[in-house]
Amino acid sequence: MATVADLLRALDRAGFTGDAEDGIGARQVASTDNSIYQVRPAAIVYPRSGDDVSLLVRALRDTDLSLTPRGGNTGTNGQSLNDGIIVDFARHMRGIGTFDADANTVTVEPGVVLDQLNAFLKPHGRFFPPMVSTASRATISGMVATDASGKGSRRWGKTSDYIVAMDLTLSDGTSWRAEPMTRREAEAIAAGSGIVADIHREALRIVTTRAADIAAIFPEMNRGLTGYNLQKTWDAATDRFFLGYLLAGSEGTLAITRSITLRVAHRPKTRALAVIRYGAFDTAMRDVQRLIAADPVAIEILDDKVLGVARSDIIWASVEGLLGSTGDEPVAAMSFVEFTADDEATIEAGLTALADIGPQGDMRIVRDEAAIGQLWSLREKSVGLLARLGGTRQGIPFVEDTAVPPEKLADFVAEFRALLDGHGLNYGMFGHADVGCLHVRPFLDLRDPQQAALIRPISDEVARLTKAYGGLLWGEHGRGYRGEFSPLFFGSLYPELQALKAAFDPYNRLNPGKLAAPAGQPIDRIDAVPLRGEADRRIDAAHSEAFDRAVACNGNGACFAWDSLDVMCPSYKATHDRAQSPKGRASLLQAWARLDSIPHPMPAEVAERDAMAADTQASLATCLSCKACTTLCPVKVDVPTMKSRFAERYWGKRARPIRHHVVARMEAMLAVARLLPGIANRIASSDRARATLERRLGYVDLPAFAVAHPRALPPIVSPSRIGKMAADMRARTVVLVEDSFTASFDGPLAAAAARVLAACGYTVQRLPPRNNGKVLHLLGMRDRFARIARARMAEVRALADLGVRLVGLDAATALMFAQEFAEMTGDSVEVAGLETLLAEAVRQGRVPAAANAVPPQRLLGHCSEQALRPQVLALWAEALAGFGIPAEPTRTGCCGMAGLFGHEAENQTLSRDIFALSWAQATQDDAMLATGFSCRCQTKRLTGRRPLHPVELIDRVLAR
Hints:
Blueprint: H1 4-14, E1 19-21, H2 24-29, E2 43-46, H3 50-60, E3 67-70, E4 85-88, E5 96-100, E6 105-108, H4 114-121, E7 126-127, H5 140-146, H6 153-156, E8 163-169, E9 175-178, H7 183-190, H8 195-209, H9 211-217, H10 230-233, E10 234-235, E11 240-241, H11 244-247, E12 256-263, E13 265-266, E14 270-278, H12 281-291, E15 298-303, H13 304-310, H14 316-319, E16 333-341, H15 344-357, E17 362-366, H16 369-380, H17 382-385, E18 394-395, E19 402-403, H18 409-422, E20 427-432, E21 437-444, H19 449-452, H20 455-468, H21 486-490, H22 494-504, H23 532-536, H24 541-546, H25 548-552, H26 570-575, H27 582-596, H28 603-621, H29 639-652, H30 658-664, H31 666-675, H32 677-684, H33 687-697, H34 719-723, H35 727-731, E22 733-739, H36 740-745, H37 748-759, E23 763-770, H38 774-779, H39 782-801, E24 805-808, H40 811-814, H41 820-825, E25 832-833, H42 834-843, E26 857-860, H43 863-868, H44 872-882, E27 887-890, H45 908-922, E28 928-930, H46 933-943, H47 950-959
Parallel strand pairs: 2-4, 3-4, 22-23, 22-24, 24-25, 26-27, 26-28
Antiparallel strand pairs: 1-2, 5-6, 6-12, 7-13, 8-9, 8-12, 10-11, 14-16, 14-17, 15-16, 15-20, 18-21, 19-21, 20-21
Helix pairs in contact: 1-3, 7-8, 8-22, 18-20, 27-28, 37-47, 42-44, 45-46
């Protein structure tokens, strides 16, 4: 039988235009999703078109390999994990076809992301209603695969309710379009021969002869018995037969999707959100049925566990005013009750009805669109937040999407809680209370075999409990490896599911082991599939501590966000290569750490370890260390720190390239160049120097040294003199903390900042540039970096303790005092941004009047600054307005420079691709300000226009 290599060669000969990977690193990255399971596939294939999909399926017939489709990789039950071939649609098949405004339909490729589709539809006043919390990365095909619903499903229904047609490749390679038809039309197809006839014949038999059983077994509730949905396949009243209902929720076990035609809805024009805070979770649960009478579009609930950990998230600052405590009693639960409409009168009527009902908690009404968006973002982060509890336990998905009739939910939850309490477990709860679907995540450490062993008994008990309440174990996120529970819920209809599977996939090649199998074929059991914890428990203590955030990654996939303006992970956004994302890098680091923990490895283990190390190094080499993952990832998977720790170990066993040794001494060389910048520029710009830099060291387009004027700079700080100042004078004293990069290449900026601060009444001194060691940290030269960190921290700590304000000119280096230096020293000192002091001066009326009007400016922020100081652009806009300069904060991602990254020859394509994602559009004219040195450098390099730093424009305005 043909091997994986044979299959890939056959695809190449057949004209397959997509990509394929079978290296150990790529397979490791594809071995996890957002579930507890880990299954390494044989290979991953990335088709570019529907024709590629058909070529793949036909080529598979000559092997004994299976094929499992994958969308956004956010499944919580291992839906898209398997040990055969993974077909990943998210890299290339992301095209949106023509929108038909009259029919309200749109056709999409399977890899289109929900937020991407809704951004496309928004100018047309439409949207795709199923609102899942993973909308930033969930693909439409993945939503079809699980028949996803999400927030608002009581009003808007599920994904299957919007499917108009599906273009498919069947298990034998046949192309087929599933669309609604009459029974007579279906019977005519069934009378023929071939796989399409077999499918129609079997489906018609079941829905017509077993109609009474289907009506009795399928529950009448919003979250019905999804996955082979016999209940809706045939509607006798309207004579409508549509196999799309069978395919929706089938998790890729019946056919492979090529494209989907969807019905869309008119987007409501306005909305309001009622935030209701409760002192007891049970009170909140029982209040839901009362509140439904107001007919909101959604009622979502959060418990105290989610709310507690949310306080450590970057989003908390923007919503804290709305999420306080109910008097002296802490908030134990919170409900978000949303109303949407096309007119304010309907919204007001809903809010009035809600008030008349009288919620049993403290209620606040939110009308501001931005604030509503922030609150829903908090709710969407619930999954990730429960993985950030501290310690070794995390909120684990395996019984997390139970659904019961809404009127029974409170009693069901009470028994559910008692069940978990009986096992001595803590847990978090959140979800769609209005439709009876609650997400419950028990806190377990699956590295502990005794805790992992609880998966089986708890799953069995919860399955029986939901069945007793007339509900389902899976109400939203599909079955995946929980398919073994299908007979419990489908009863006498389960053999019919097997018959359907046999008709669609007689050789059991499509995502085998899930949902149902042809008679005689096995279904996977939840405790027979490898768990991630099994691999993690083989990592030794030293590696577990150094790479704890890699182990903590729960696969929620927030780093796969579609929006190019989203700051997190520019390398993934430019490549759609999952290995170049925080989740992918965490997976690689976890696997390498396990292999590197083996004390006396066998030759095969050495080979696997070295191959994994090479793939891990290749992945980390494209990380720009923007640090967005340290805050925007719900689990705070800190890739830059782990990258430094990995580099220390990796290069500790290998000869470093000469470039490492040269750039490690770069700051010392910069100090010399600053003394004679003109001579340094003439030498560096010579043809010989440029050729040597590129050929020997791999650097291109290095910036020119700035010619600074020392007399324009403020005096060097004297701690002894500051110590003699009165307290009020120290409070007005600002120390500019210069960094070696800005001082070398943007020298006049310090003088401009000093003049502006002085004009606002501050006494300005400066701490001259010292080595910051950032390059040493990136290269993993951590001993040398630690010495620099201790020296720098001691120097600024002494100044901070005197009560003066410390201000940095460049975010990337100023933030080191709270990031890299803090990691090494255990101390942290705030080196504030200029915007903080200038906005403060504006509020206090200490700003000189502007002489002339300035045209409006676009305000562009450094990516690290936006991730770690999210209010920075708003503060700059406030400060600039105080000087008469209108400036609009403009969303951008990373510019693609990131220190030396954009100057490295091997990164030129990626650096430019990242710039093209958002910065190219934002820098098309000179009306722009950029806070980051790297950003100004990259913009000048790629457009020929250098943006001013905001303080430079203020300085010019004051000088007029």
